Amino acid sequence: MSSIEFRIDRRSGLATYLQIVQQVQQALRLGILVEGDRLPTAAQVAATTKVNPNTTLKAYRELEREGLVEPRPGLGTFVSRTLARPKSAADSLLREELRSWMARAQGEGLDREDVQALVNSVLQDRYPQG
Fold first, then answer.
1. What pLDDT score does 86 carry?
2. Model's pTM, two decimal places?
């Protein structure tokens, strides 16, 4: 059984519930969360992130609307669908190349925010619809 630990960036400008939604989606894409996994309860998320439980519940409702999770009364909220693609050798190679690129960027003095801005800029150029 996999688990997820949410990280909330209060300076990001992105609503907290959307950060939770995006982190679950990312975990589903990367196979960190798989069908049948239970998400942390709103109380657990509140304890680790200081996020109001209602914010987490709002995120979980959005994920439910997207068909990614399902609430089971008395048991919790469970992943009902994955977003992961079948793993391939190309994925491993791309991940290693990205790790290497990140190490070079760090060596050049770029911090996390610099790298994020650069990646977001290239993503926007390459995938303008998102």
1. 74
2. 0.72
